[in-house]
Amino acid sequence: MDIQIRDQWIEALLSKKYRQHRGHLRKMPRGVKTTHGGDRTHKAGAFCALGVLCDIVFPDQWGRPDANGVCEMMGSRTYPPKAVLRVAGLDGPSMRAVQAMNDDGQDFRTIAEWIRNNL
After folding, report:
1. Residue 27 DSSP label
2. Across the strands, what pairs with 73?
3. Helix segments in the chain, DSSP class H
4. Quick one: DSSP state of residue 83?
5. Is pLDDT of 78 > 90?
6. Which of 68, 62, 100, 105 is closest to 81 using CA atoms?
7. Which residues of 10-41 are buried (b: 16+ CB within 10 A; e: fewer)?
8. Which of the residues 46, 82, 88, 115 has the least number of beta carbons within 10 Å of its own beta carbon?
9. Average pLDDT value for the chain
10. What is the pLDDT of residues 47-65, one digit of tens each?
11. Angle CA(71)–CA(8)–CA(49) in degrees, nearest 5?
12. What is the DSSP letter of 45?
């Protein structure tokens, strides 16, 4: 994995700038029609750990939320697009490990430590 992107990802996961979500890369509150916004300390909506990686690599590539508030990036809602994986240098097994930890309820701090120790 690209070391600079890995370090930015760890920093972002530990920053409390991102609220955690499970099951989708990014989800906005009901009724919100844009992915822009949030306040100075938080990004708008909630993200899974892989969604945070997507936001680091391509922050301007989020699509508008659907009726359920789910946002896609380059056509993907649950896994990072191939372009994100390629730029970040994240392989499939590592991506699936992070996805499983996130969706099984591990917090961002635990996931960040796993990334630091394994990628």
Report:
1. E
2. 62, 76
3. 3-14, 49-57, 82-88, 92-103, 108-118
4. H
5. yes
6. 62
7. bebbeeebbebbeebbbbbeeebeebeeeeee
8. 82
9. 92
10. 999 999 999 999 999 998 8
11. 40
12. S
- Cα 107 to Cα 25, 31, 92: the distances in Å are 15, 27, 21
Q: What are the residue ranges spanned by the domains of the chain?
A: 3-118
CB-CB contact of 109 with 4 (8 Å): no
Closest to 52 measured CA to CA, from 86, 2, 102: 102
Tell me the C-alpha distance between 47 and 54, whole Å.
10
Cα–Cα distance list, 5 to 30, 104, 117 (Å): 31, 24, 15
Query: What count of Cα atoms within 13 Å lies in the side-chain half-sphere of residue 58?
Result: 19
pLDDT at 35: 62
| pTM for the structure as a whole | 0.93
What SS3 class is residue 62? Answer: strand
- Helix pair 108-118, 3-14: axis angle to 10 deg: 160
Q: What residue type is 70 in one-letter code?
A: V
Instruction: Give the pLDDT confidence score for residue 3 in this predicted structure.
Output: 98
